[in-house]
Design goal:
Length: about 500
């Protein structure tokens, strides 16, 4: 056996990639304590030799697959051949809904040699002077690396999650000199793009399998709080991809002008306007899509007279209880036990709370309803009593009352706190749910607008405190109690309808 060892070692070394050989030699050096051992530098990667661009402009049809995921995630794109690779990077980010928050790299084909073969450098690469022949991606055209049907180019995004895409050329068309062709158009798509920072293909697979088993409700609560509102990995439409492609590369000013014009112009809620000047184009695009979804009443339907009566009921009940003489308060300023217990019982709060329900300071549903009535200007404290206001007396119609509450409960003197509440209402209108978990996308969007409450951005718990009045109002609007199943069409319609009233108030009394 000993005489066989050199040949075995020779075969093992011959099968190693340059990086693997480098690691082996570095390990030997470390094991020797560095005594008399040579210093090994990173193995040099051979330069990329490219042909000149074609004489005529071309349109390339490519299929881009995210590797190592099932079911397959892919896009079919028509791309101008004269695009530089840094522009292709922006297009791929938009095509899969990624946020360009990590490093990336292009690797030429035909062989797939990720991390071991040649690559095109980015502005963030630290290339040593001796690495002659390395080509920056912003000096390489797509039609220099994809020439003939079947040619392949590889793209890696996020060196932690390692999303690698295979870009395969399917068709080449020569363009006329005067042809006006978009830089990028999506003609087919399958599956939503993998979520940022979900753990690469294994993490994506876990999310998809859990969703397939039972939708968002089947996800672990922490995962459910983390995924975007309304996330569905099986849902992606070509129109949405093309909308993202359309805005890719625009400046903030260009995008705002684009979003304000045309049949699909965004009708921004006034409360989110303080964020629009802070948002970069990718966040603006996301806000625009969220706003369009929230504004679409056809998702869950318009509020019915029955819905409006149910939404108005708790506010009207407390107003009627106040009557002409008001509700007596204790010296500490709480409603007296008999009144608290009456509200607790008649409005069914015992289904979502524990305790006797006769002390306001220990019965959050009652205390919260009273606080919202005061916030909306329906009740006011005066000389030891809660009195009904003149505005409340005039609100005899259910729709007027609901609109009045919706128009006031989400307001605040601080523009950014009010913007946070508007974001919470947007997510609620889009999903038809008033979830505690909405604090996460609210905090994320505000963080990406450059805002901070901690060194890492806006803390989701801080966002929830800002949004508490909206959260509790919409939670009550759903009609769901703590231990009662999933939202149905009626509860979604009521949440979405009241959230839209908050965002786009009309005729507020």
């Amino acid at each position: 056996m000993p005489q066989d060892l050199p040949e075995d070692l020779h075969r093992a070394v011959a099968s190693m990639t340059p990086d693997e050989l480098h690691q082996l030699l570095a390990g030997i050096t470390a094991a020797s304590g560095g005594l008399g051992a040579p210093e090994f530098g990173r193995p040099r990667v051979e330069p990329v030799v490219l042909p000149d661009p074609p004489a005529d402009d071309v349109l390339l049809t490519v299929r881009v697959d995210v590797d190592d995921v099932r079911p397959p995630v892919w896009r079919r794109l028509e791309l101008r051949g004269d695009l530089q690779l840094d522009e292709v990077h922006e297009i791929l980010q938009a095509a899969f809904g990624w946020l360009d928050g990590h490093l990336h790299r292009f690797w030429p084909g035909p062989a797939k040699r990720i991390w071991t073969g040649p690559f095109f450098t980015t502005e963030l690469d630290e290339i040593e002077p001796e690495d002659d022949g390395m080509q920056p991606e912003d000096e390489v055209r797509l039609d220099q690396v994809l020439r003939e049907v079947g040619d392949r180019l590889f793209y890696t995004y996020d060196f932690g999650d390692d999303w690698t895409c295979t870009i395969k050329l399917e068709k080449v068309c020569t363009l006329d000199d005067d042809a006006e062709v978009e830089d990028a158009v999506c003609t087919a798509a399958r599956m939503a793009g993998p979520l940022e920072d979900c753990g690469g293909p294994p993490g994506h697979q876990e999310l998809v399998d859990a969703f397939r088993a039972g939708g968002l409700a089947a996800l672990d609560p922490d995962l459910r709080a983390w995924v975007p509102p309304g996330w569905d990995p099986f849902e992606e439409d070509v129109a949405s991809v093309n909308e993202r492609l359309r805005i890719a590369g625009m400046t903030q000013a260009e995008l705002m002008e684009s979003l304000a014009s045309g049949e699909d112009a965004v009708e921004w809620p006034s409360a989110v306007e303080p964020l629009l000047d802070l948002a970069l184009p990718d966040v603006l695009g996301e806000l625009a899509e969220l706003t369009r979804t929230a504004r679409d009443a056809s998702r869950y339907g318009d509020l019915t007279a029955e819905d409006l009566a149910a939404l108005a009921r708790p506010y009207r009940y407390l107003m009627d209880l106040a009557g002409e003489d008001g509700i007596p308060l204790t010296q500490a300023g709480w409603m007296k036990p008999a009144a608290v217990e009456q509200v607790y019982r008649d409005l069914g709060f015992e289904a979502e709370w524990i305790g006797k329900g006769n002390r306001e300071d220990q019965t959050a549903p009652v205390a919260d309803l009273r606080a919202r009535c005061q916030r909306a200007g329906l009740l006011r404290k005066h000389r030891g009593r809660l009195l009904r206001t003149r505005a409340a007396t005039a609100l005899t119609d259910d729709e007027d009352l609901v609109q009045h509450v919706a128009g006031r409960v989400g307001t605040d003197k601080n523009d950014l706190v009010q913007a946070a509440m508007a974001l919470f209402a947007l997510v609620s209108a889009a999903t038809g749910e008033a979830g505690y978990d909405h604090r996460v996308p609210v905090a994320d969007l505000m963080t990406r607008c450059g805002l901070r409450t901690t060194s890492r951005g806006v803390d989701p718990h801080h966002a929830l405190e800002w949004c508490r009045p909206v959260w509790r109002t919409l939670s009550d609007a759903s009609g769901l109690k703590l231990l009662r199943g999933e939202p149905d069409q009626q509860s979604r319609r009521r949440v979405a309808g009241m959230a839209r009233m908050m965002l786009w108030p009309q005729g507020v009394v």
